[in-house]
Amino acid sequence: MAAPETSSAAVPTLYTNNTLRNAFGGVLSFFILLLIGVLAFSIRLFSVIKYESVIHEFDPYFNYRVTQFLTKNGIYEFWNWFDDRTWYPLGRVIGGTVYPGLTLTAGTIWWLLNSLNIPLSVETVCVFTAPIFSAFASWATYLLTKEVKGAGAGLTAAALLAMVPSYISRSVAGSYDNEAVAIFALIFTFYLYIKTLNTGSLFYATLNSIAYFYMVCSWGGYTFIINLIPMHVLLCIVIGRYSSRLYIAYAPLVVLGTLLAALVPVVGFNAVMTSEHFASFLVFIIIHVVAFVYHIKGILSPKMFKVAVTLVASVGLAVCCAVIAVLIALVASSPTKGWSGRSLSLLDPTYASKYIPIIASVSEHQPPTWPSYFMDINVLAFLVPAGIIACFLPLSDASSFVVLYIATSVYFSGVMVRLMLVLAPAACITSGIALSQAFDVFTRSIKFQLPGISSNAEVDAGEASSAIAEAQNDAVKTEKPEETSRDRPSRKNKKKEKEPVEKPSTKAKAKAEKKRLLALPLEASAISLLLLVLLGAFYVVHCVWAAAEAYSAPSIVLTSHSHDGLHVFDDFREAYAWLHHNTDVDDKVASWWDYGYQTTAMANRTVIVDNNTWNNTHIATVGTAMSSPEKAAWEIFHSLDVKYVLVVFGGLVGYPSDDINKFLWMVRIGGGVFPHIKEPDYLRDGQYRIDSQGTPTMLNSLMYKLSYYRFVETDGKGFDRVRRTEIGKKYFKLTHFEEVFTTHHWMVRIYKLKSPKNRIRGKTKKSKSKTGSASSPKGKKKNP
């Protein structure tokens, strides 16, 4: 009798230990997540510590300006704001052409802080929005990975995402761009989809649609979600994994998500009229056909089911054919087949370079190099394959989604370097799964072979707890029918109740013994564990270096190190300050589109083109002016009411991202609209040259003259440090433009259009004098 009593007494003891262990693990996981959030936030503060609290890059200045307008004038004025300081003389409707998620988020944070009497400026809130949401993205990654492979993999993936350089490059303090909040929205939407898929809850399905709506508000990359999820649903149907949970996870997202997306002004009817969304509707029809087939299978006899399947298949095929015909008609009526230019450039990497040079001219739209993968995701590139294999052991609906996510993101990142940002979460999730599984194998192998544990006959606590849980479930199942028939169980019944408890414990021991046999040797496990720790340490060092050195410098303030110390180049703000204080409020400034947002936000002057690039003809007009001789360029700018022209020049200090290096894109974009601009006219034997071998068309272009005017006075030779050569045309004068300001390091140069009145008056005087001398008789005095 003693043995059965001991075994039955072991059940509550081990169950209590398991409960305490789970509670301690939950508390520990919470504090680890808290530390991961602090890490994600703090590693992005190098830009503020090393430089100052300032907005970075070009696009964030427009977002900052819009946020200022929102906080000052309110939400209704924001939706109806017509900005007459951009794209002169066309202007721009801001509320209908901007993704409002980032602006509304930062504006809400600013409003809440001020409501709590925390008086922070709008600029400060904008600077720290990205680091805050990077912490949120890390926590969302934990939730997503936990749904796939457990809490251990989730914590590892969250820690990896907090430091991955690819994400840091877009979320450092001051990087106030759409991706700052969009990556969190992307991961959180995927988490809610997987959560709904695992639970079949309509509550999570509704939250998923709301998260998708926030993603639509935040970034144009929402089309990745509305295509990836239908691909996964179709994959599950094809491999025979359809369930009611799959239907609940997908159908509300398409219906409610599309309705909500159509509420965003910049999207509107594009949510149902463009090719990027058609895949979701087609899969929506397919899943309803499949759901109907499964439904009638349960209520009809096999013979009737065959007849019904034939009927449903026929009707479904007819409906699909009709929908496909409508889609083909809509697509065929569009010159771009219903796809946007950026989407077509993803499907066909050569499309942009052939037909839309304005897209190909953007550096972040170029394909990445192999070193950029190692720079942006580092050792994760080698862990991703192991994580994919782990997702197949075993394959579930959630793990199949992760495999599909990593496969598609690898392709898109190979097409466009900007989409390395989409690859980063997928790489962190799969790498987190791989590291978690590896640590589990190695630590279990070491634990099984330690002297204190190998001699112990007791079952491992983790295995015992799971076995006891199963035993209790079985015991409950066996007890319920007996207790309903008899209120007082006999000794025989007590023995029967004890038997199911003892059998699973024996099964657990056998399972643990099998794992012991599969354990790796102790030395190999210890060395492998050490190598994994070293790999993680190398990853941490690389990520901290990338955050501190590679991605912390704001593009508006540049630095360089030399033998005589650190040099700071603050020429951009110097030039914008000069424009703000020395020009009239209504003056128009022409420059290449890269600097439009900064000019409007920092100098508060009207620009001809900016970074929105919505009007290719307008940009081509500016490109044509820059590519034309001085007189023709003056006429183009004068017709646009331009008073000042701004060019960026890096030949003196070695700044490579200047307008001379971008000049061929101006030629290509201008030539795409105005055929008299031909790229071969600017090339010598197919080479782009600015030295003595440069073509006359190149050396007489306005961009060349505005960049190299008086440049020979700097060193007497006119040596360009970026192109590493002496310029071809050193001594020339400007006839239609005059230099009004050049920054300290010659990085920004501003010219003013000469007034046409003086020149026209001069020509009139000459023509009048010639006419007067021809008509007046000799000896007659000329009218002065």
List keywords for this structure.
single chain; 784 residues; mainly alpha; Rossmann fold; two-stranded antiparallel sheet; 35 helices; 11 strands; 66% helix; disordered C terminus
Question: What's a quick, concise take on this entry?
Answer:
With 784 residues, the chain is mainly alpha-helical. 66% of the residues lie in helices and 5% in strands.
What report would you give on this structure?
The chain is mostly helical. The protein has a domain at 567-753: Rossmann fold (3-Layer(aba) Sandwich), CATH 3.40.50.12610. The protein contains 35 helices and eleven strands. The strands form four sheets. Strands 6-5-7-11-10 form a five-stranded mixed beta sheet, sandwiched between helices. Strands 1-2 form a two-stranded antiparallel ribbon. Strands 3-4 form a two-stranded antiparallel sheet. It is globular, with a radius of gyration of 34 Å. It starts with a helix and ends in a 9-residue tail after the last helix. Residues 1-7, 454-502 and 760-784 have low confidence and may be disordered.
Order of neighbouring strands in the sheet with most strands: 6-5-7-11-10
Give the CATH level 1 class of the domain at 567-753.
Alpha Beta
Principal-axes geometry comes out as: globular
- CATH topology call of the domain at 567-753: Rossmann fold
Total beta strands: 11
Count up the helices: 35
Helix content estimate:
55-70%
Please give the alpha-carbon distance between the first and last residues. Answer: 136 Å
Uncertain spans = 1-7, 454-502, 760-784
The major sheet is characterized as: 5 strands, mixed
Estimate the mean pLDDT confidence.
83
Oligomer: single chain
CATH architecture of the domain at 567-753: 3-Layer(aba) Sandwich
- Report the structural category: mainly alpha
Beta percentage is 5-15%
User: How large is the radius of gyration?
Assistant: 34 Å
